[in-house]
Amino acid sequence: MLASFHLIRYPRANAPEGLSRMGLDRPPLRSTPGLAFWKLLGTGRGQAMTLGADLKRWALFAVWEDEAALDAFLSSSDVAERWRSLAAESYHVRLEPLRARGSWNGRALFGDVAATTPRDGEPVAVLTRATIRPARLVRFYSSILPPAQRLVSAPGLLESVGIGEWPLARQATFSLWSSWDAARAYAYADGAHREVMARTRDERWYSEELFARFRPYGAEGTWNGGDPLTAPRAAGTPR
To answer: Interhelix angle for 191-202 vs 145-152, to 10°?
Structure first.
């Protein structure tokens, strides 16, 4: 089993069509062979989780039974063909699960994966996702600004994006890091982030959460003008 993450940015002229695909692409995704789990996702502005949405950028997180199913989807599905014809930029990265805890919509997506430590200096992808209790929404959003600001400048961060299923209440972050040491340093050494992590447990902010790390490989396309795993961002492209 493997996962994939797809980030699609539309030009302004095609932005309404991109928004409509959040509903219209659901039936073909439900019938895609070998697609074990999927979520169409909106994105926040910039790199971190924000209250504002970017209506020109959308994402898909997917879990596949095997590599052949993902290959077939990218090469011949109508969904992927529309990405190619309508998007200003798209990025697709394959993800080997290394460790996961928690669930998404009641499913432990990678519960049978033995925890694996990434190799020294090997890039790592991290997905953190939570359903926030309605009574905790104000506390959550009033607390995440400091760690979100630190994330953008964290050493070793290659790229990140805030993503969500529902506005406000079901939120996630997908990030790429130069190494697991860099990702772990931000998660556990940064005081603001560590404090928020402690409060989520002590004050029971989440009704469900998932943390997963992956080995990213087989990337195609660009994210903000380049492949963050292999090449720097194009000059003049905002982070």
So the answer is: 140
Q: Where are the domains of the chain?
A: 2-221
* Number of other CB atoms surrounding residue 187 within 10 Å: 17
Q: CA 39, CA 128: separation in Å to the nearest integer?
A: 14
| Nearest C-alpha neighbor of 96 from the set 116, 80, 81, 73 | 116
The stretch 136-151 carries a mean pLDDT of 74
pLDDT of residue 235: 40
**Tokens 């989520």 map to which residue?**
200
Q: Confirm if 34 and 66 have CB atoms less than 8 A apart.
A: yes
Give me the sign of the Cα torsion angle 67, 68, 73, 76: positive
State the DSSP string of 170-218. Answer: EEEEEEEES-HHHHHIIIII-HHHHHHHHHHHHTT-EEEEEEEEEEEEE
For residue 138, what pLDDT is reported?
Answer: 79
Cα→Cα distances 7→91, 108, 117, 226, 232, Å: 5, 23, 26, 13, 17
CATH of 2-221, one of 3.10.129.10, 2.60.40.10, 3.30.930.10, 3.30.70.100: 3.30.70.100
Q: Is 74 helix (H, G, I), strand (E, B) or coil?
A: helix
Looking at per-residue pLDDT, the higher value among 150 and 1 belongs to: 1
If you average pLDDT over every residue of the chain, what do you get? 87
What pTM, to 2 d.p., does this model score? 0.90
Query: Is pLDDT at 231 greater than 80 in this prediction?
Result: no
